[in-house]
Design a protein that fits this description.
With about 475 residues, this protein is of the alpha+beta class. It folds into 3 domains: about 30-235, tricorn interacting facor f3 domain (Immunoglobulin-like, Sandwich); about 235-315, 2-Layer Sandwich (Zincin-like), CATH 3.30.2010; about 330-460, Neutral Protease, domain 2, CATH 1.10.390. It has 10 helices and 22 strands. The protein binds tryptophan (TRP) and zinc ion.
Length: about 475
């Protein structure tokens, strides 16, 4: 048989996967293999094809002395195609057992981050199924393409899980792409004296024989990069906003004094945000404050953002605004990051405008005139098209994303712009949306305006636009 001189990459990788599976489970011509990525333009191997997760039940135990995590992930999903095998993204940990619908399943955990599972019986398209993965080990800290550290971070008194964009595969197996959102039960057992804080609502806290169990539930859909666990010593303060929303704030005792005043403003910020962005999409709010050196970035972890050190008011406003922009309406791919960061940055501008500071117009003008003095890379690439995976958190995504929103405000006037700010997260509540969904939405809300020059100059165009 003549050998092809060269295989195209897609064929080569499909072949490699088929060979892998032959090695672990006897492949055949009738294999229906779920893809090992969802072809994200910036992270092609993130996520997996062939199924959609509906719920993660993670049962974890952590020993902060040995730094060992022992976990069971029960993942409920629906098959989107017939499947003889499928992948989960999972990095580093040792998998001991995998089951599908309670039956032992063959698996192969490749060096990088793909855990391939072959259920004993093939799954039919549309079937719902539950995958159980037992694992343990010392979870890894992952350095992401922009150089920041995430995944599982060791902190002064415990650990912290951060996941944007690629960290969550360090501590639970999953479909780690923003397009597949699910509900969660996260239960963590820690040595008595420590606390374990996560997303959503605390359903149970119980100490038995020197260990404390914390059971958290996230009842609304959440992307995996927004899941967190914070383990350590925390001062916990529970309260309610004026309209009865539970507030759960956990602060490293080292940061208590420095953060008390700003965290007391959460109810006030939530009320302002609801007026501007519409009804809050989740069932509780709050914050987790660790020490400044514990993490390299703040993150809008769902319902309960994480801060390395006491935040200032602007950062608290930013992360709470993400609950609407990013967490409820979540980007369809990592290319659409500006939909998160442009809005969260614009929320800071609006807060300032409403509280006696610079108007958004003044902020825009200052950025246009000499923004590159503060944001070196401000004009380096268009917000809707970052240069590479290392740039999805770059200045244009945040600052120029916010400038684009201001251009829309100038074109539509304040009333329509306000409708757009509220309507966008309402229309896509608990869903996913892309940049083209956004431009279509704006065009529909202000149908007598022509936005094409704004999109060309501010969203897709290279370099500094000619006119402010
Ligand atoms: N979303 C975080 C914030 O603005 C920052 C961040 C961390 C980030 N990792 C990222 C932004 C990756 C974009 C991409 O508070
Ligand atoms: Zn942000």
């Amino acid at each position: 048989m003549p050998r092809p001189a060269r295989l195209v990459p897609a064929v080569a990788s499909a072949l490699a996967l088929a060979l892998t599976l032959t090695a672990c489970g006897g492949g055949s011509a009738r294999d229906k293999i779920g893809a090992s990525g969802v072809s994200d333009p910036y992270f092609p191997k993130a996520g997996n094809g062939g199924y959609d997760v509906t719920h993660y039940a993670l049962t974890l135990a952590y020993d902060s002395t040995s730094r060992r995590l022992t976990g069971t992930a029960e993942i409920e999903a629906r098959a989107k195609q017939d499947l003889t095998s499928f992948n989960l993204d999972f990095k580093g940990m040792k998998v001991t057992v995998a089951e599908v619908d309670d039956a032992p399943a063959r698996f192969h955990h490749s060096g990088h981050h793909e855990l391939t599972i072959r259920p004993p019986d093939a799954l039919d398209r549309n079937a719902t199924f539950r995958t159980t993965v037992h694992y343990s080990g010392r979870p890894e800290t992952i350095t992401d393409p922009d150089g920041s550290r995430e995944g599982w971070l060791r902190t002064a008194d415990g650990a912290l899980a951060l996941g944007e964009p690629v960290g969550s595969m360090a501590w639970f197996p999953g479909n780690h792409h923003p397009s597949d959102k699910a509900t969660y039960d996260i239960t963590i057992t820690v040595p008595e004296g420590l606390k374990a804080v996560s997303n959503g609502e605390l359903r149970r806290e119980e100490t038995k024989r020197g260990r404390t169990i914390f059971a958290w539930r996230t009842a609304e859909p959440m992307a995996t990069y927004l899941a967190t666990v914070a383990i350590g010593e925390y001062d916990v303060r529970r309260s309610k906003t004026a309209n009865g929303l539970p507030v759960y704030v956990a602060v490293d005792p080292d940061q208590s004094k420095a953060s008390a005043k700003v965290l007391a403003r959460i109810p006030e910020i939530m009320r302002w945000a609801e007026e501007n962005f519409g009804p809050y999409p989740f069932s509780s709010t709050g914050a987790i404050v660790d020490r400044a050196n514990d993490a390299g970035y703040a993150l809008e972890t769902q319902t309960r953002p994480v801060f390395p050190g006491a935040p200032d008011t602007a950062l608290l406003v930013h992360e709470l605004a993400h609950q609407w922009y990013g967490n409820s309406v979540t980007p369809a791919s990592w290319r659409d990051m500006w939909l998160n960061e442009g809005f969260a940055t614009y929320a800071e501008w609006l807060w300032q405008e409403d509280h006696g500071g610079d108007t958004a117009q003044a902020t825009f003008d200052a950025l246009y005139d000499h923004g590159e003095n503060t944001y070196e890379n401000l004009w380096a690439f268009p917000p809707a098209s970052p240069t590479s995976a290392a740039h999805i958190s770059g200045d244009p995504v945040y600052q120029r994303g916010a400038m684009l929103l201001h251009k829309i405000r100038e074109a539509t006037g304040d009333a329509t712009f306000h409708d757009i700010l509220r309507g966008w997260p309402t229309t896509h509540r608990h869903g996913n949306a892309s940049t083209s969904d956004f431009t279509a939405y704006v065009e529909q809300q202000a149908s007598d305006e022509d936005f094409s020059a704004i999109w060309d100059d501010w969203l897709y165009g290279s370099g500094k636009p000619d006119h402010a």
